[in-house]
Amino acid sequence: MSTKITPAELVPRANDPATMTPRPPTKKKYRKENVNLTAWLFLLPSFLGFLVFTAFPVVAAAGISLLEWDLFSSPTFVGLANFQKLLTDEGFWASFVNTAYFTFASVPLTIITSLILALLLNQGFKYIAVFRSLLLLPYATITVSVAFVWIWMYIPQDGLINTVLSWVGISGPDWLVSETWAMPALIIMSVWKGFGFGMIIFLAGLQAIPQQLYEAAMVDGASSWARFRNVTLPMLSPSMFFVVVTSVIGSFQVFDQALIMTNGGPGTQTTTLVMSIYRAGFENYNEGYAAAQSLVLFLFILVITAAQFLNQRRLVHYDN
Amino acid sequence: MTTEPATRTRRSSGTTMAGNLRAKLIVFACFVVTGVTLLPIVMMALVAFQSDGESMAANPSFWPTSWHPENFTRIFELVPVGKYLGNTIIFAAGTTVLETITAALAAYAFARLEFRGRSLLFAIYLGTLMIPAQVTLVPLFIMVSKLQWLDTWQGMILPHAFTALGVFLLRQFFMGIPREYEDAARIDGANRWITFSRVIIPLAVPAIATLAVFKFIGQWNNLLWPLIISNSEATRTIAVGLQVFQDVNGTQWNLLLAAAAITTLPLVVIFFLTQRWFVRGITMSGLGGR
């Protein structure tokens, strides 16, 4: 690469030839003071935006959660009343249970799918790049767009999925309008939409495993299952840990597909935590209550992520 | 790719019947899995070409009995899809450009300039990565509405243009650039701005492109923020606008899915064009998380 520097830029800035001040001492002093100034000039646009649109709102969320405020009248301070209300709000706890159901079903299913496909792609054959691209396609689509085609596929009467099921003699459920099957329907769609992420991470992880480990295992007469169990899985566990942690965080924030495909229904069967926040804040204009719910969501995510990090040492193998 | 060794081992020992069979089974499995995976996308395209009657019939048909490419122009007449797509481009490109520029500048300061309070400030940036976006949703909405910014571009774009994640990813990349490159330029008398814009930025193009592609796709996908901030056609994005096609008098599946296909098509094109960066972005986010 070439670095183009014009002669004009090569002239030192703080140099006044008229006075001919002895250069080395002033220059050194000038430079030393300048690092802070230069750094802040570089930081300023990002820092201002960060301060106004991230740091301040985070602090403000805590304050708003102590208010009763519909944005039209002036806010009243209600202390911890919003949090007390949460404890007995059946709707909120239903959305918590739904979100937990979604997370603990979709994360393992997504990870198993990602892993199987990564293993398949890692077998090494021609056109692997083509299959990899095509398998990544769902991950690159717009959630809202594909949510609509999944609604169409889930049509109970002669819909695509139930038609295929009928070929093997299964009479399919009513999917999105069924109390039992609406959530599994969302989970299946989300696994389809999301497996590409883990697949790419696992593929990179698999390709980084030294071939000698497998050769050593072969010499020891390890079966292919034993090689998978004792070489592949431990070597892949750091990638696995990363995918689990990020997927759990992402799943706790599920919103788009639930809003489009079921709008939280039937009843409250698929109302998620973020949907509950959305309803409180932007449909019922109960800003304090919405802020309180968002902080509790944060707490849930924090606890569950901390729990995973605490178990990391036991489950994850770090090779140096 | 790094799959070469595996291919070679299989070829050398794979002249046996069992080896051939295994290879064929793997390719077969790949075809089946890819077919199933692509089915929803293929169906979206097929239904989009069906006639009104066929797509709204009580029992859905799969292969169009007659082809109606005019569906793709009809949606532009029925709903301002063109306007919505334009808005989506403004929203996604606006946040991407602002984020990439400000993140690159800040990342340079964090990676190379030893200013006072650097570790503390960086720790604060990192700390906010843990906080889910929903926490800032209510305060940002209140801020935007108090500023009278609802339904404006500054209200749509600014709150999403400064994320700590962008700064973090670029800083990690800048740290990996050998200092010798800059030292050479600085000995020649180049100031910080010159080293940043002429040395660091050209070297960091892959990382910046990765961040830009990810940010653009992420914002094109963003439903919640436009849903609460935009309340007229002036700023409505296509992700929000798609819902118009739903349940007018029963869903017009052909038009809805034609619009859905048009919504997702630009991203599929971007994905295929920038796949190298896209894949790198996924793995980079993986390394960042460790």
Describe the structure.
The complex is a heterodimer of chains A (320) and B (290). Chain A is an all-alpha fold and 320 residues long. Chain A contains 14 helices and two strands. Chain A has two domains: 58 residues, no CATH class; 234 residues, MetI-like (MetI-like fold). In chain A, strand 1 and strand 2 form a beta hairpin. In chain A, helix 4 packs antiparallel against helix 10 and helix 8 crosses helix 10. Chain B contains 16 helices and no strands. In chain B, helix 2 packs across helix 15, helix 10 runs antiparallel to helix 11 and helix 12 packs across helix 16. Chain B is globular, with a radius of gyration of 25 Å. In chain B, 42% of the residues are buried. Chains A and B meet through helix 2, helix 4, helix 5, helix 6 and helix 8 of A and helix 1, helix 2, helix 5, helix 6 and helix 7 of B.
How is the topology of this model organized?
The complex is a heterodimer of chains A (about 325) and B (about 290).
Chain A lengths: L6 H4 L12 H42 L2 E2 L7 E2 L3 H8 L1 H32 L6 H9 L6 H11 L6 H8 L14 H26 L3 H9 L4 H29 L3 H6 L11 H11 L3 H24 L1 H4 L5
Antiparallel strand pairs in A: 1-2
Helix pairs in contact in A: 3-13, 4-8, 4-10, 8-10, 10-13, 12-13
Chain B lengths: L3 H10 L3 H32 L3 H5 L14 H8 L2 H32 L5 H12 L3 H14 L6 H5 L6 H12 L3 H9 L4 H12 L1 H17 L2 H6 L8 H4 L11 H21 L1 H15 L1
